[in-house]
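Quiz preparation item.
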């Protein structure tokens, strides 16, 4: 037996002792799918400068080629989150959709970029000017139309709306206007689903119209079943317990999707688990627990990152790997023992159950899952670390 096979057999034995069926874990690792943001392949930076990287794809087709490389190495990254108008300029959405499909990939969601037009400086869907608000609604409808024609089934909304100074905005009026705008958009959804993302601050620094999960959920409930909350890990205040929010929303059928990244201070879109891998594990632990309890499985998992200083494809690979890894760790939690420890009010035993899973080296499981998915390349080899758009 070579070293890899020995490691795999050993882990299988270890899991058996925890009452965990390796085959079922492997199946769940293969069934999992992760969406990649097209903007993860674009140049980015800070508000001080944009750093240009060589060989950045000029259009969505080039970004889809990048996605094909991710799928080849990870098996699970096979769908693209797109942004309108950036990804759709000068292109036929249908053609973009079939370009993806020919490669075994898909365009899964569309987000309207409501944050660049100077007309939206003081608000988009919340703006006090009827014309401007209509312009924002039209932009969302156009994005939705383009996305739908490309095959997307999800309208993912994030608003830059907020104010910078006390007195500037009438909170109540903006709330009403936002509901009106969203209702108009919701009425055109057809078969699509709507995800509503919240964010604590930025670009606005005093108030944000959708600043937390409670507000996002309030709008979703007013709209209807097709609207659910999207949790972006970078969009909370310091120290907020995101896994608690996740469990709370999931339990109520309101958890629609994720934007995975990592924050240290604010929405800095660091690669997943770069600073706090335990948090990602704890989030997946709640999701897996919810799934075991029969809660809905159709959650849209996506990355939301765009590294300014790491090579693009390599850093996306790191994040896909981290997401898959922490899911695997959550799948090997000994839930019976955890339940028992909680029943005994043994804080120590309960915590140790989670730490045991987090400290399990799940690399052999990931390797087996990727092998079964026909991945032909190692996930993070020297080429991926050096990047210049990787390739073999
Ligand atoms: C801005 O914070 C942001 O990263 C949001 O998280 C959106 O998901 C994304 O941009 C695309 O609009
Ligand atoms: Mn996001």
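Solution:
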């Amino acid at each position: 037996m070579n070293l890899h096979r020995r490691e795999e057999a050993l882990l299988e034995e270890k899991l058996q002792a925890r009452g965990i069926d390796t085959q079922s874990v492997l199946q769940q690792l293969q069934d999992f799918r992760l969406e990649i943001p097209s903007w993860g392949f674009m140049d980015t930076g800070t508000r001080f400068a944009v750093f240009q990287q060589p060989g950045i794809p000029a259009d969505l087709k080039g970004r889809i080629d990048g996605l094909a490389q991710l799928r080849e190495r990870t098996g699970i990254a096979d769908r693209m989150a797109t942004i309108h108008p950036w990804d759709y300029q000068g292109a036929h959405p249908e053609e973009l959709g079939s370009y993806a499909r020919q490669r075994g990939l898909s365009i899964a969601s569309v987000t309207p970029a409501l944050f660049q037009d100077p007309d939206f400086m003081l608000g988009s869907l919340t703006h006090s000017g009827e014309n401007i608000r209509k312009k924002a609604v039209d932009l969302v409808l156009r994005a939705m139309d383009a996305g739908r024609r490309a095959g997307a089934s999800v309208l993912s909304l994030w608003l830059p709306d907020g104010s910078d100074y006390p007195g500037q905005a009438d909170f109540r009026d903006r709330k009403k206007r936002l509901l009106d705008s969203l209702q108009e958009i919701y009425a055109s959804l057809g078969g699509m689903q709507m995800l509503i993302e919240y964010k604590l601050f930025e670009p606005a620094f005093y108030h944000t119209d959708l600043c937390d999960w409670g507000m996002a959920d309030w709008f979703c409930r007013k709209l209807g079943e097709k609207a659910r909350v999207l949790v972006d890990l970078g969009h909370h205040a310091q120290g907020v317990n995101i896994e608690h929010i996740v469990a709370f929303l999931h339990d109520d059928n309101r958890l629609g999707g994720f934007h995975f990244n990592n924050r240290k201070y604010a929405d800095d879109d660091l690669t997943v688990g770069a600073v706090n891998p335990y948090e990602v594990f704890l989030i997946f632990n709640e999701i897996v627990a919810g799934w075991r309890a029969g809660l809905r499985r159709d959650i849209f998992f996506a990355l939301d990152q765009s590294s300014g200083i790491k090579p693009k494809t390599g850093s996306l690979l790191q994040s896909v790997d981290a997401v898959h890894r922490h899911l695997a760790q959550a799948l090997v939690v000994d839930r019976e023992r955890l339940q028992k420890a909680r029943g005994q009010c043994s804080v120590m035993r309960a915590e140790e159950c989670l730490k045991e899973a987090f400290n399990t080296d799940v690399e052999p499981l990931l390797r087996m899952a990727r092998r079964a998915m026909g991945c032909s390349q190692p996930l993070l080899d020297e080429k991926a670390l050096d990047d210049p758009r990787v390739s073999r």
